[in-house]
Amino acid sequence: MSRLSGVGYVGRFAPSPTGPLHAGSLVAALASWLDARAHGGQWRLRIEDVDTPRCPPGAEAEILRQLDALGLRPDVPPSRQSQHGARYAAALQALVAAGRAYPCDCTRAQIAAAQAARFGPPQRHVERPYPGRCRPGPDGGAAGKAGCPSHRLAGTGAGSPPAPAADPGTRPVAWRLRLPDDAQLAWTDRRLGPQRQDVAAVCGDFVLRRADGLWAYQLAVGVDDAAEGITHIVRGEDLADNTPRQILLQAALGLPTPVYLHTPLVRGPDGEKLSKQHGAPGLALRDAAGVMGALQDAGAVLGLALPPGPWTGTAADWLAAAVAAWRDRPGA
User: Which residues are ATP-binding (predicted)?
Assistant: First the structure.
C-alpha cells in the first residue's frame, strides 16, 4: 500500500500558541489539511506549547477560533505538548541508557567563545554547530575540560518525569544528543526533492532538554509524531533544515520516519518570512469576505489551480474545490 493511500495517512498541523495565526502559518495549515483530505486520511491538531514562557494566555483559544472560522477542523480533539512530559522523559532516559545523550553545562557565552575560536566570527542567518565542549570521549571536549562536573538524570518526586540534575554545587545542565560518527543524512522532500545535510557541520550535537528544564523542540516533535501515529508531515519550508535532526533522533529512538513536504514561505516587503517574532499581523477573519480572502491568498501561495477573483460560493465550496486542485497538482 502506498504511503499516500487513505487508511495509512495521518497528518497534523502543529502551531505554537505564541500569537494568532497569520498569513504564513495559514499556508502550512491549509496545505496539511488539503493533503490529508486529498488522500482520505486523518488530520490532527497539536498545540506545541512546550515553551510555556512564550505562550500568552488566550493564544491557543484564538488559534482554535481562527481554524474553526476557516473550516479547518481536526478529526480528533487537539493534543498539547505541555501534557506530554512523561513521554519526553522516557525518551531521554532511553537515549541516556544507550549512550546517545549527555549533559552539557556550557553557558551561551562559553559556546559563543568556543565557536568563535573554532569557526571565526558569526554570520547573519548562518547557524554554527555546537563546538563539542561537553561531548564525552576522544572526539569531544569534556574528557579534558577543566571543571566539567558529573551529572545524572534524577527524578523530581513521586510520579513526576525525570529532570536533569547535577551534583550539588554545579549549575543546571542541558542534555544533548550525541550524533553518530557519520551524520551525513540524505532524505527526499515531496516538494523540494532530494536533500542532503551534514548535521554535525550544520548544528552539531543538539539540545534535547534545556538547562531551564524545558523540553527542546526537536525531541518533543519527534516523540509526539511517533506517539500520535503521524505518517505525513506538511509544514513550512523554514523547518526543512530541522528535518535531518528529527530523522536522526527518530532512528536513535527506533521510531518510524514520516514522509515530509515543506511548503513555500510567505515573505514580507523586506524579504524576511512572515513570523510572529517579526510582528506579522494576525488573520482578519471578522466576516465571510475576510475568511475567503485569507483562504484564496493561501491557495495562491500554494499554486492551486483555482479561479482568481471573487468567489461566489461558500468557504466550504472553496475548500472542496481546493482539495480537488491539490489532488490534481503535478507531483501529488
Answer: 276
